[in-house]
Amino acid sequence: MILVGQGCDDNQNPMYDYQTIWKCHYENNWSYETTRNKIIGLWEWKYIKCCGETTKPYQNGTESKGLKIEFNADGTGIVMDKDAIKEFSWDIEVLVNENGLYEFQTTPAISQLYGRLLFCDNVMMCNNSYRDGADNFLVKVENTNPI
């Protein structure tokens, strides 16, 4: 029995299609301000796609299930992972030679946020596969509380 193609690509969701996300991302003009404003809010981790050889936790793509990350406008944030709540600080910086793409700078580091940031509607892809890492997809949680 041959199991080629098994692992992270199982149950590929079109919402996390690379070609769609790249095309959608470049339909907008992303500056530091517009990127930062897009990030502010509550995001829920949904999916991971990895490349090459993977470690066992990545193979079913569920090691971050339930993870939520809230980004505040003042550069602070909260990571909610199962029963743990941790504070962090964040900003973004433009990547050199990456066509105006940004990446997170967080303290402490948050592995699900590594890589180039791409947005399509309410989906944020943290694209780290270009560095042989994993790509994480988060979906923005709509605010149900009127201000």
How would you classify the quaternary structure?
A: single chain
Mean pLDDT: 84
Fraction in beta strands? 35-45%
From the 3D structure, determine the CATH topology: Lipocalin
Question: Distance between termini?
Answer: 57 Å
Order of helices and strands: HHEHEEEEEEE
Alpha carbon gyration radius: 15 Å
| Sheet having the most strands | 8 strands, antiparallel
The largest beta-sheet arranges its strands as 5-4-3-2-1-8-7-6
Task: Produce the secondary structure layout.
Elements: H1 18-25, H2 32-39, E1 41-49, H3 56-59, E2 68-71, E3 76-81, E4 84-94, E5 102-107, E6 116-120, E7 123-127, E8 135-140
Antiparallel strand pairs: 1-2, 1-8, 2-3, 3-4, 4-5, 6-7, 7-8
Quick summary:
By secondary structure, this protein is mainly β. The chain has helices at 18-25, 32-39, 56-59, and strands at residues 41-49, 68-71, 76-81, 84-94, 102-107, 116-120, 123-127, 135-140.
Describe the structure in your own words.
With 147 residues, the protein is mostly beta strands. The chain has one domain: Lipocalin (Beta Barrel), CATH 2.40.128. Helix content is 14%, strand content 35%. It has helices at residues 18-25, 32-39, 56-59; strands spanning 41-49, 68-71, 76-81, 84-94, 102-107, 116-120, 123-127, 135-140. An eight-stranded antiparallel β-sheet has the order 5-4-3-2-1-8-7-6. The longest helix has 8 residues, at 18-25. The protein is globular. The termini are far apart. Residues 1-11 and 54-59 have low confidence and may be disordered.
